[in-house]
Amino acid sequence: xxxxxxxxxxxxxxxxxxxxxxxxxxxxxxxxxxxxxxxxxxxxxxxxxxxxxxxxxxxxxxxxxxxxxxxxxxxxxxxxxxxxxxxxxxxxxxxxxxxxxxxxxxxxxxxxxxxxxxxxxxxxxxxxxxxxxxxxxxxxxxxxxxxxxxxxxxxxxxxxxxxxxxxxxxxxxxxxxxxxxxxxxxxxxxxxxxxxxxxxxxxxxxxxxxxxxxxxxxxxxxxxxxxxxxxxxxxxxxxxxxxxxxxxxxxxxxxxxxxxxxxxxxxxxxxxxxxxxxxxxxxxxxxxxxxxxxxxxxxxxxxxxxxxxxxxxxxxxxxxxxxxxxxxxxxxxxxxxxxxxxxxxxxxxxxxxxxxxxxxxxxxxxxxxxxxxxxxxxxxxxxxxxxxxxxxxxxxxxxxxxxxxxxxxxxxxxxxxxxxxxxxxxxxxxxxxxxxxxxxxxxxxxxxxxxxxxxxxxxxxxxxxxxxxxxxxxxxxxxxxxxxxxxxxxxxxxxxxxxxxxxxxxxxxxxxxxxxxxxxxxxxxxxxxxxxxxxxxxxxxxxxxxxxxxxxxxxxxxxxxxxxxxxxxxxxxxxxxxxxxxxxxxxxxxxxxxxxxxxxxxxxxxxxxxxxxxxxxxxxxxxxxxxxxxxxxxxxxxxxxxxxxxxxxxxxxxxxxxxxxxxxxxxxxxxxxxxxxxxxxxxxxxxxxxxxxxxxxxxxxxxxxxxxxxxxxxxx
Length: 716
Description:
Helices cover 30% and strands 22% of the residues. A hairpin with a 4-residue loop joins β24 (648-653) and β25. The strands form 6 sheets. It has a 9-stranded mixed β-sheet with strand order 13-12-14-15-22-21-20-17-18, with helices on both faces. Strands 9-8-7-6-3-2-1-10 form an 8-stranded parallel β-sheet. A 5-stranded antiparallel β-sheet has the order 11-24-25-30-27. It has 3 domains: 31-104 and 156-187 and 256-418, CATH 3.20.20.80; 432-632, Class I glutamine amidotransferase (GATase) domain (Rossmann fold), CATH 3.40.50.880; 639-715, Sandwich (Immunoglobulin-like), CATH 2.60.40. The chain is globular, with a radius of gyration of 26 Å. The chain has 716 residues and is α/β, with parallel strands linked by helices. The longest helix has 28 residues, at 237-264.
């Protein structure tokens, strides 16, 4: 194997190796496109002209909404006609077609034929049949747990695959748009789902009702049929079990979609995309790390509604994809007019993507995170409903705009043959694993009816590392053996298995930094009387001194160390060191941070949520706490960007080449001065793949990054 000469020794290549290789090698290495047809928008008179425009502007892919209710118009009757025309145009103009199946939009005849199978809401009402704001056709929510609905859905999916499997315009099928319930209130409580919940419980509890009674503390349940899904969210085992069930049930439905289409079409791609919101909305928007099992290509929707740093979505889906190709499946291409009025507060984010420069920077962040596609939910906007004239790159009549011109330039650059070698590399593994703890998020939701405290703690830690020039990868517990350094935001609720795995990982040489109340609650929300619990006191080298759980009290809280001050919030726990030593203190003198050696590894426990503190108040002074993570582990950053304002730096690699991405979030150009880690990187020159020339001298690389753009260099 030829080694990358920029990396100074073989061990460093292994340490910072990329997660997996993309096998994709096509004439269009980056897919640029959008969702085009949602019956009945755009009008048929414009179709061929729009395909011709898309082809001329370098677009390579269209996704269309194949809604069940618009095709399966009567029992056993399917109307493919308008969709067939789109596949023919795709073949004519060389644009790949992804069929987005939408079986959650059930036919009206099914809604009236099986009223018992309508989705039942928390309050006992059934979901009404309404018009769909995202496509302008009817939406009837039917529950797939009912065998009558499931049978008809599978008939539709099978006929869909059989009808298009040999069509030359077809590229693949997109399963279950965003793979989401969207809202916990959208959980179904119909009798069929209640039955499925009981079957799930029987499997989890080994068909032992007494075992469940004790776990739930519901001692008078006399038979499995007595069990119902809880309709009130509280931090008790029944609620937490229900949340896990809903996530598992969603995967069952996704697998059904995949299996049914694959039975009909064994050759075209299976695609799926989630919401990239596992860090904040696991109870409703689903687990972005699980659907990839059922698809060949994965993707994600990410927009201002995610309320966080855009790089977080891309990094999360890259890790979730486990080396598979992934796309930014839904970006945003224009303003949004929904829910805006003269008496509402100004929502500035809804107009951000009206500016071409912001679309460009959004694309650069997606690509820098490793995405191999940049796709918009509207090629041109809908002409009906509450989402009319929203999101589209092209104008309402299909004419070009300054936004579409930006996308044309993006396509021209991304698919320039001179840039192809860039796409054969991908982001290397981050130096820190930012552990996403599902049990802690479920506990947070069940306790507060919101995931906000968990989410803001996680986001704040991620953004602090980004601002410090350190790549922190959003990972799960099963990924920790790939990392030497872990940071745990809001780790308050953990199962015994996770604690044992973390202790073994540290003992073997891992370096762990954990925020406050580490493992305070079990996975069922049970608070242990002695803290820290379950042997965590030996891991961290300290016992609890005091604790206070009032988030309202701790806004603006800080702690101090020799490196300066840092913010915290949500909970406040102080410590009495045993084998560890205190290294930071609250203003009352109590120990806020304790560091300890455990086996071959090290632990730093922080008595509050430092990520939350940074998210609410991102003071530059607070970054010192986060940057100290690497020296605490005996490491240093691959690249330092201390001299610049807000630059985001990423290293890409393959077996042969190394690339540097530098993204500038400011509206104005910045002269970048980056220090290369001489222990790891040994670049002598840099060839520009995007941006102006770069100069390397004495371990520093200098270049200019345009405003709201990226510069990309091959390091040699």
